From TrEMBL:
CDD domains: NUDIX_ADPRase. Residues 38-163 form the Nudix hydrolase domain. It comes from Thermoflexus hugenholtzii JAD2. Gene3D superfamilies: Nucleoside Triphosphate Pyrophosphohydrolase (3.90.79.10). This is ADP-ribose pyrophosphatase YjhB, NUDIX family. Pfam families: NUDIX (PF00293).
Length: 173
């Protein structure tokens, strides 16, 4: 059985597998509840200032000690843009304005569960740069001076795209 459910979250009966909506899914034979395993929604901000990009050194796993975009999961009561602004503020002390969408990435192998990662472009509009929340360090880095290691394939892909836009065609990370 794929996923964490063995018993129905509604009535507690043991789930069975049925082919529904194009794939095998856990289904409750007692109440008919169908379990859909949906990915979490995560957001990040590629914040640029004076030709440099904002990165944070992670305090916790996954990726402890490595560098990534300021990012996190969308809360149930907020939209993705608000979440990206909140996460950046929590991790870096900076208030940002979202200027557009960079890309959307599928993240099927995160240890916290599959996710869809939305990366926005942003610029700082206030606050003071200081690490917070789950960041050990925060700083701006030029395209040819990114710190190492860069954790998460989605961070590396977003930075590769950003570097390419800046005229740095070099290797992927």
């Amino acid at each position: 059985m794929i996923g964490p459910f063995v018993f129905c979250p509604r009535c507690g009966a043991r789930l069975t597998q049925q082919f529904l909506f194009g794939r095998e899914r856990p289904v409750c034979p007692a109440c008919g509840y169908i379990v859909f395993y949906d990915p979490k929604v995560a957001v990040g901000a590629l914040v640029e200032h004076e030709g440099k990009v904002l990165l944070v050194r992670r305090r916790y796993d996954p990726g402890k000690g490595g560098w990534a975009l300021p990012a996190g999961f969308v809360e149930i009561d907020e939209g993705p843009v608000a979440a990206a602004i909140r996460e950046c503020r929590e991790e870096t002390g900076l208030l940002i304005r979202i200027c557009g969408l960079l890309d959307v990435f599928a993240v099927p192998t995160d240890p916290r569960g599959p996710a869809v990662f939305i990366v926005y472009r942003g610029i700082p509009v206030g606050g003071d740069l200081r690490p917070g929340d789950d960041a050990l360090e925060a700083g701006f880095f030029p395209p040819d001076g990114l710190p190492s290691p860069l954790v998460f394939a989605s961070t590396r892909r977003a930075l590769w795209r950003w570097r390419r836009e800046k005229g740095f065609e070099g290797r992927r990370f």
